[in-house]
Amino acid sequence: MARLVHSTLLKLNAEGALAPDLAAVVPEVEAGGRLFRFHLKPGLRFQDGTAIAAQDVVESLTRLADPSLGSPYAALALPLVGAIDGGRISGLAATGELDVQASLAFAYPDWLRGLAHPAAAPLPGGKAGLTLAGAGPMLMGGALGAGEARLSAYADCSEGRPFVDSLRLTVADARGASRALTLGEADAVLGAIDKRAVEGPALFATYLAFNSARLGPHAALVRQALEASVDVTELARFFVRGAVPMAGLLPPALEPSGATQPQPARPTLPKGLQLVLLVDATADDQRAVAERLQVKLHDFGVSVQLKRLAKPEYRQALATAGYDLALIAVAALPEPGLALAQLVLLSQGRDAARELLRTVGAGADPSARRQIALAQSTLWRGRLALMPLYAQVPRVLLRAGVA
Q1: What digits encode the pLDDT tens for the residues 276-328?
Q2: What does residue 168 show for φ and ψ, rounded to 5 degrees?
Q3: Which residues, in sequence order, are CB contacts of 173 under 8 Å at separation 6+?
Q4: What digits encode the pLDDT tens for the residues 213-249?
């Protein structure tokens, strides 16, 4: 839904190739993958009426890299010159009203693909999270009531006014959504489990994070217990509608044949161990999964308290490591190296994530860089304090007669 409200510099077309969005053209890869120059389409405006300028792009990417925000999408900015130090990024500059120059500290020719992610969408003055004024085809019209909202066509979108005049969004359970579609009360159902549904790439992945600092010597044992007892295929099939299991660190859209890990022996855990499992209260799938993990650890004599927090408090708890275990969902950047860097950033910090990107970017061509990224994914699988669980597949089912 973010793509309806926001536009990015570049986008991925139906074949997965880069195409211009707010940018006039896909820029050339210069200096061996260390320099990119963007020229924005003239005359574009954000939905609040302000003109889209090069400085908005610079401010948005700079804010994305701000260490104090703890964004998992900061990995996109890490290759830029100066990004590792925080503050202003010397590798980003508005060289004209509509011109942006991005200089990388090392070669990463595939960096452009990351700019197609909604997290990289420019906003007025770079005020990410502080405004709903994007530049996408639909304008957020506000809430209509509990579980309802309306989007209206944005005439000044970079690709012109959309064909649809408005969209009314309503939250419903599976049965209610199916009934509404059958009766013609709805034109499309998102997340429908139906063989007629159109599927998108599985990039939204959920992991179990282990806080090694709080778990101490118990961290390895708790992880071993869960890896020995949790069947991720069963978890995805029975506890998360429409999800697919993850064998490797990266979601299936980026790593279709993730390396399967051998099931470890069941360990013996200390008696009376009590843990806190952090859950995002706004993520419906996480509650059932958390309860399943709670049951599995109970079999080992471990007491688990589920701590369900609203999004702001949840993010704060993650940032301050106020948990023993946490369910973390990440919308992967659409390129294997950048997606893996997101996870390394979450678990090991900026320096490790940047060195990973430097290693991947050294590949001679896209195929070589992809192979390096997948090999690194296998290497990092046991080193990161993250247990991959499942990825959700975006699906949409259209009413008969709706194209």
Answers
A1: 999 999 888 899 999 999 999 999 999 999 999 998 899 889 888 889 999 99
A2: -110, 120
A3: none
A4: 999 999 999 999 999 999 999 999 999 988 999 989 9
The DSSP annotation for 222-241 comes to HHHHHHHH--HHHHHHHHST
pLDDT confidence of residue 206: 97
Please report how many Cα atoms fall inside a 13 Å half-sphere around the Cα of residue 25, on the Cβ side: 5
* Residue 31: CB atoms within 10 Å: 10
Amino acid symbol at 230? V
Answering whether pTM is above 0.85, one says yes
The whole-angstrom separation of Cα 245 and Cα 232 is: 6
- Residue in the structure block whose two tokens are 């994070």: 209
Q: Which amino acid makes up residue 17? A: A
Coarse DSSP helix, strand, coil percentages of the chain, rounded to the nearest 5 percent:
35, 25, 45
Token pair for residue 191?
Answer: 């997340």
CA distance 363 to 378: 17
| Unique residue bearing structure tokens 């049965």 | 175
Domains and their CATH numbers in the chain: 7-126 (3.90.76.10), 138-199 (no CATH), 204-393 (3.10.105.10)
| Distance (Å, whole) CA 10 – CA 25 | 8
The pair phi, psi for residue 96, each rounded to 5°, is -175, 175
User: Which amino acid does the sequence have at 313?
Assistant: E
For residue 212, the one-letter residue type is S
| Tokens read off for 379 | 């290497």
Among candidates 288, 279, 267, 254, which has minimal Cα distance to 377?
254
User: How is residue 95 written in tokens?
Assistant: 């060289």
**What is the C-alpha separation between 210 and 350, in angstroms, rounded?**
18
DSSP secondary structure letter of residue 249 = S
CB-based burial of residue 257 (10 Å sphere; 0-12 exposed, 13-18 middle, 19+ buried)?
Answer: exposed
Closest listed residue to residue 390, CA positions, set 236, 229, 249: 236
